[in-house]
Amino acid sequence: MYLTVKETAEYLSMPESYIEGLIIQNKIRTVHDGERHLIFKDQFNMHLEQMEKYKKDLADYHNEPIPEDIDVKDED
Fold first, then answer.
1. The pTM is what?
2. Are 39 and 11 in contact (CB under 8 A)?
3. Distance of CA 52 to CAs 39, 46, 74, Å?
4. In the chain, what are the domain boundaries?
């Protein structure tokens, strides 16, 4: 499935100008139909999977309890 720049920006939750910049830098593969750039949606699957994994890892990190430090004991 092919998306326009606007649809891609909405799909990735990024500004259109950023997507256009990635197209200019050739970091996103596109097909130009003479009027607009069309972007193949499936090329972002790995990116979205990695972002979900990162969000899960970050949530796990923040939910991990802080271990009690053995050097904190008051010995005075």
1. 0.62
2. no
3. 22, 10, 42
4. 2-64
Class of domain 2-64: mainly alpha
Which amino acid is residue 22, in one-letter code? Answer: L
The dihedral formed by the CA atoms of 11, 33, 35 and 15, expressed in degrees to the nearest 10: 20
Task: Give pLDDT tens digits along the chain (76 positions).
Answer: 899 999 999 988 899 999 999 999 998 889 988 999 999 988 888 888 988 999 999 999 999 888 777 666 666 5
Q: Residue 29 class from Cβ within 10 Å (0-12 exposed, 13-18 middle, 19+ buried)?
A: exposed
Predicted confidence at residue 59, as pLDDT, reads: 95
- Which pair of structure tokens corresponds to residue 22? 């990635």
Burial status of residue 49 (CB atoms within 10 A of its CB: 0-12, 13-18, 19 or more): exposed
**CB atoms closer than 10 angstroms to residue 16:** 14
